[in-house]
Amino acid sequence: MSAVSLAGAPVAKALRAGIADNVARLASDGIVPALAVVVATDNESTHWYVRSIAKAADKAGVDCRIIDLGPTASAEQLKSTLSELSEDRQTHGIILQTPLPDGVQADELVPHIDPGKDIDGANPLSLGRLAVGLPAFAPATARAVVELLVHYDVPVEGRHVAIVGRSAVVGKPLLHLLLERNASVTICHSRSRPLEDYTRAADVVVVAAGRPGLVTERHVAPGAVVVDVGTNVLEDGALAGDVDAHSVEQVASALSPVPGGVGTITTALLLLHTSVAARAAVEAKGPLVSSGTVRSIR
Amino acid sequence: MSAVSLAGAPVAKALRAGIADNVARLASDGIVPALAVVVATDNESTHWYVRSIAKAADKAGVDCRIIDLGPTASAEQLKSTLSELSEDRQTHGIILQTPLPDGVQADELVPHIDPGKDIDGANPLSLGRLAVGLPAFAPATARAVVELLVHYDVPVEGRHVAIVGRSAVVGKPLLHLLLERNASVTICHSRSRPLEDYTRAADVVVVAAGRPGLVTERHVAPGAVVVDVGTNVLEDGALAGDVDAHSVEQVASALSPVPGGVGTITTALLLLHTSVAARAAVEAKGPLVSSGTVRSIR
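ok -> structure tokens follow
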């Protein structure tokens, strides 16, 4: 068997059509969806990534403002920036970009992002709302996995999905997105041994552990679908997933590549979420307000 | 094999010792921990249950105030009551008791419970904080399962736990409590078929599905530990779990009874949480405040 490649590009393209639709509808109300990205680092690759979001936003008709507070920004500065953006009616989506300055904890900052503008699902309230089935934005990477599966007609209802990795940005929110779609879900991690006992029982295996080559053919049941969320930068600068593609593609029926898979979809989702947040704000005839009163934001 | 019975009473007794310790420490600061239970129904069994909490509170040295708004209370009345209690420095724990009046949605009310006083984990922010590992109160029933396992030295680290049921009050928060303890966790539900394929793979099976007799011996691997969270009232008024105890105790190494198991522990946890919330408020020299700034509340 040689696995079908689940490329992200066609998924991103379909999502961009959805963004264009939202942008056009908003234009008829005189609104341009606006994303604010808050940065507080001099890390080169972060700035490269943020500029790539800004370029994609520009192409999509989404206004993108980069608010660079510099690598010495204080927690107080970051908090007040996030609070101001949360209250600003001209801003529809907010991203707090990591890494943060030394000693500044993201945990203290993300509650200041209005859940209605929390388009990368960073506020724990967004995760809690997602978990109980209330409208909320999932982290783009977690939703990207679902969009990939949906695009390629991989069913999850009534099927067994194993997630390797329990992070707050992928594993945990993805678990809730999949439960909502009536999958049975196993969440395993570095303490799950032997890992193959868990992953081989699954119809779909999603790997988001941050360990290059962690999952090999012995971890995958014949015919299973494997989604690789890993984005590991190797010593030579190359990007590698968490899956040993060469061996896994011999047993899996489908496998998402790295690069070119899940990672290709996330920026489109950030912009889609921003356009959805803008539409929700317009339709509610006012700014989205915090906790509990967020209006429909899907 | 005949399964060991995992009775809840000794667990509740141990928890009451913890409450007594907190109550004594608070007394030296002149503080009596105070719980407010908001009720808006004329349902007889709800009132019976709430009185049972009040009696247990009285015995434990916890002040318990029942705020009965009656079965015709409006959402606005309930919201403002919860907001006032959240701001009231004399109140340390808040429970919003269900059922609610017709047309009133709990979803709209629970965000008004300060997470620092949300001692039954009803606010989605509490679940989100729990999920990302921040201090938060879990729903008492979910934590009761963990306390039962800990009390009887049932290890979960590195072991496979299957949870049957995905509710916001048991399955989902329990999943996060177990992940934090390094268990691998499978969450299954009514769409998981055949159910035994999921449950038989597990070292520990927790059943919280609300269907009497759902789990039988064929669902359980020999020697597994089974925790029954079901509390189903049968036609004859008897209380039945989700587990067919007669058959499961032939294969399981341990089984929690119904009645007399998990349900026995929850009231003690509500009071323990209230005493912990009171201590946190005292130690923080002021009221706990909402989202993001909740101080240590474990």
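The longest strand of chain B covers residues 34-39.
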